[in-house]
Amino acid sequence: MGYRLPVASFKSPPVGEVSFGLGFSPLTAFKVAHYGAYWDVIRKDYPECEDKPQVFDSTSSAISLGEWFPPPRVWYLHRDRNYLIQLQPNRIWLNWRRLNDAVEYPRFETLFPIFRQIVEQFAEFSRANNLGNIVATSGELSYVNYIPPADSKQPYSDIGDFMLDVRWAEGRKSLPNPDGIAWRAEFTMGNSKLSVDLKSGKRADTQRSLYVLEIRASNSVGTEFTANPFDWFPTANKMIVAAFCEVTTEKAQREYWHRVDY
To answer: Model pTM?
Structure first.
């Protein structure tokens, strides 16, 4: 399936977060001690860690260690804190986060090789520690963008200038402009799923209102995905860019993503 992109580029998109994820068959021999052993492998670049609750979706249950308890999901924080690796016995992620406005989004072409290296490194760790081979079962890629409303005194009233399919009509007799907003659309794209989520939010440092736009692609198609899991991610990236171009207005693309036509 092809994805039609505009004859344009986006110079400095306001991407706040990027997440790559790979799901795999549960490593049944994985023990809590392996979190520390894996940390020894990456500690030079990821010197801090945090315990988090395990993530599971609607199609799977939490992974338990024997009859005991679900092991945690562990965050390994990069020394510059913009990157983090997340790990649990059936999934690994790479996240990039813009922690301040001076940090520049490194783009897919930079992030994807880092993610691939991390997965391959963990796969080698798994084999070396007799945990088994990593058998990929699913992939996910998501981008989160933080967009300030044009009018900070009337946040979310200008949503029609930003999103093609969402608009707050003026001239209502009883309702004021909304204090918050949420909109979601889901699509089937071949063997992949795509979701577009728009919601209201606040900047942590200034508490200024924001639009939070997340576009997420996911794939879980058994043996077809397992054979060449890394082949899917460039396709997912094109899918997300194409979706972005079709759900946002050209005005927003120029003002917030700094679109430049060829």
So the answer is: 0.88
